[in-house]
Amino acid sequence: MRTPAETMTAYFDGWRRHDAESLREVLAEDVVFDGPMGHVEGIEDNVASLHGLLSIVTDVQVRHVFVDGPDVLTVYDLHTTATDAPMLTVNWAHVVDGRARTIRAVFDPRPLLGT
Cβ distance 107 to 35 under 8 Å? Predict the structure, then answer.
């Protein structure tokens, strides 16, 4: 079984490969995502949402990972085709039995909204 840090490393490795389907291996069936652009529940809807997101992601550069038991906080620069500059993003995941159960993302959505 993966540690929480290994789970989230695999998660972001899937992003870098633009492989949303591989994320099924690290997401819990009842995973819940919350972020500035929306709320998504369940593995099917999360994978579908990630397919959309990964279509504009060009790179993910992890700056730092903080681990506190089952909680993993990843600070990264998100590069996309929709923005000129990378977006500083913080992702807080709660991992149970090697799978992310909850994921919360924090970033300024204005560059994506054109404001």
Answer: yes
pTM (2 d.p.):
0.92
From CA 87, how far away is CA 99, in angstroms rounded?
Answer: 26
**Please, where are the H alpha helices in the chain?**
4-16, 43-54, 110-113
Q: Within a 13 Å sphere around the CA of 85, how many CA atoms are in the beta-carbon half?
A: 8
Low-confidence ranges of the chain (pLDDT < 50): none
- One of 2.40.100.10, 3.10.450.50, 3.40.50.720, 3.50.50.60 is the CATH number of 4-106, namely 3.10.450.50
Round to whole Å and give the CA distance between 4 and 6. 5
